[in-house]
Amino acid sequence: MSTKIFLPLPRFRNYVNALEALGAEVCFSRPESCGGLLLPGGGDVAPGRYGRENRGSAGIDEERDALEFAALETALRRGIPVLGICRGCQLLNVAFGGTLFQDIPGHRQQEEGDLLHPSHTVDAMLVSLYGEDFLINSSHHQAVERPGKGLIPVQWAPDGTVEAIRHESLPVFGVQWHPERLRHPTDGWRLLRRWLEEAESFQE
């Protein structure tokens, strides 16, 4: 039986393609039947959700925000693994009461594609996959400012930008980078594969 993963919106084909290539079944309805929730990248979370005025946020879609916050609430209630990628990582932080830097320099996608830069992690799972120091891709302009309740930063860029967060007790993990499209020199699919293995054990 393939692992069922809930993706709140069907339009993000790069995530769907990566998950299906790894043997998962991607669902766009009935999250209660899935073993994991993936929150994908995209536009910025509405800054009003973390008590701030707009100071550089763009691509805001409040209907999407509502859909994904509701999906996260369902996932947390069921206790299934959640993976947030880029915007998804930011949304996790906001959902747990944290705040975001709304516009940071040096991390945006370049004309030729994602920016690659080194990172350092203290997360045991990431270390087991990649070691303490490894290259990641970058395509964002927002990041975790104050971590949400229970969320612990576990990976950083050289400039101190938080690149991954983990909840201290819940199966909730977020990365600021894009494992679904990072294959060389770092194989981001190792992270997706490990997460799918975790989600499989939660599937009903």
Shape: globular
Main-sheet strand order equals: 2-1-3-4-11-10-9-6-7
Helix content: 25-40%
Name the helix and strand elements from N-terminus to C-terminus, one letter apiece: EHEEHEHEEHEEEEEH
| Number of structurally distinct domains | 1
Biggest sheet architecture: 9 strands, mixed
Task: Provide the CATH superfamily.
Answer: Class I glutamine amidotransferase (GATase) domain
Mean pLDDT: 94
Q: Classify the beta-strand content into a percent band.
A: 15-25%
Question: What's the CATH C level?
Answer: Alpha Beta
CATH fold-level label: Rossmann fold
CA(first)-CA(last) distance: 11 Å
User: Architecture in CATH?
Assistant: 3-Layer(aba) Sandwich
Tell me the radius of gyration.
Answer: 16 Å
Structure classification: alpha/beta
Quick structural summary:
The chain is an alpha/beta fold. The model has no long low-confidence stretch (mean pLDDT 94). It is globular, with a radius of gyration of 16 Å.
What features would you describe in this structure?
The chain is α/β, with parallel strands linked by helices. It has a single domain, classed as Rossmann fold (3-Layer(aba) Sandwich), CATH 3.40.50.880. 26% of the residues lie in helices and 23% in strands. The strands form two sheets. The chain has a nine-stranded mixed beta sheet with strand order 2-1-3-4-11-10-9-6-7, sandwiched between helices. It has a two-stranded antiparallel sheet with strand order 5-8. It is globular and about 40 Å long.
